[in-house]
Amino acid sequence: FGGQYAHIFVASNWERDIDKYNGAGTKDYSGYLYEGTYNSTIRNSVEVMKLTSVGEKFENKWRNAQAQIIAIIGFSKITDVFGDVPYLEAGMGKNGIFEPKYDRQEDIYNDMVERLKNCIAVLKEVEAEDHVYPAGIDPIYDGNADYWIRFANSYRLHLAMRARFADPGKYEPIIAECLSEALIESNDQNPTLTTSDSKSDLYNPWWWGWNASQEGVYNMVWAEKFINTLKLTNDPRLFFYAEKNPDGEYVGFPNGLSDVEFSNWNKKDVSIPSGDFFAKDQPIYLITAAQIWLLRAEIALFNVGGGAGDANQMYQTAITTAMEQWDINSDSITNYLANETEAILNGDQENMFRQISTQMWITSVPNALESWCTIRRTGYPIIDQRTSSDLDPGITNGYMPIRVTYPTTKEYSINGSNMQEAIDRLQGGDEIDAKIWWDVHDAPLK
């Protein structure tokens, strides 16, 4: 969803309904995200939280805090996509709760930032280093409690920034709190899940999607907007992300083509992801130092929560860190920072906000769901309304969808009444153009 809505990539063989802004077609695919997250990340984390709770056999408040952090990662992704979702009662099937209520997104966000604050306090205790999951068991930081603190605080900042336009009175003080604590600042502090090129169950999950092809046509190719943005700004990450087409050029595929225009395109003539980008052993990043530096640049630009500092310096640190994450050579980075207009914040405040947001859109890849969230939160980069007859306007009159519909899964039959309550709270019902709580931009989006 996010990758196509954000114009990062295009599905060239399947999932055309998503790219065509066709709400009906998204319901089946949204079930993969909905059920996959609840049945894995959330259910497993909630189970660990239960086992490590006070009075339980494996009572351990430090490991409980680690499990809560991972659960919040899963919950935040789900609510950012759908809006109101099961939260407080989610993952409680073993406790006999099979019809969890759908909590309001505002309440979910309020609780997540408070829980992360509590987790940070627990992990800062002197005993934490000896009681967190140790090296060899902890798949993210090998038992480094300090890095877990940075992770939790950085994610708390991420959530607070996402919600700041919806409720600045509540979230700007939280942003100030986050700035007073340690944050992820370098790539060695990035929370990553290690993958493997020899064990198929540990392959980078992006490999399965990006590598798939039918009759020589890759199922997913880079979008025209993404490739052109990198080309126009001489961004050296282009050479890491993409391969040249058979003619030796970098060419992106247009999003939203009508069925007629889609059939006319030579889909072998566009740029596919590079082998390095979707390598089987490419690590999975839960959040990155570059993303945090971009949030800090935005904070400094608008003096959010009293945040001080040089916005441009933070912006350039973000770009450098993002490029180093993908092993872009230092000469290319230096040349980009010295010669590219977009590498320096310039113009009025709104233009600088556009620059920061556009870098976040790029930097979040391959997690294009975050790229889509960036557009919804900030309005940048602008995804133009589809007005050409060559493009399919879908059911949104050509405007980028701002939500995903609830899935047509067994949830409807098992928990339909609670889901319906959530649908009734949506402005416009269960549609892809219905606004969620933190999305306060005037609809339709720019």
List keywords for this structure.
446 residues; two-stranded antiparallel ribbon; two-stranded antiparallel sheet; globular; mainly alpha; Serine Threonine Protein Phosphatase 5, Tetratricopeptide repeat
Q: Could you explain how this protein is built, in words?
A:
With 446 residues, the chain is mainly alpha-helical. The chain has a domain of 189 residues: Serine Threonine Protein Phosphatase 5, Tetratricopeptide repeat (Alpha Horseshoe), CATH 1.25.40. The chain is 50% helix and 4% strand. The protein has a two-stranded antiparallel ribbon with strand order 1-7. Strands 2-3 form a two-stranded antiparallel sheet. A hairpin with a 2-residue loop joins strand 5 and strand 6. Helix 4 runs antiparallel to helix 5, helix 4 runs parallel beside helix 7 and helix 13 packs antiparallel against helix 14. The longest helix is centred in the N-terminal third of the chain and has 29 residues.
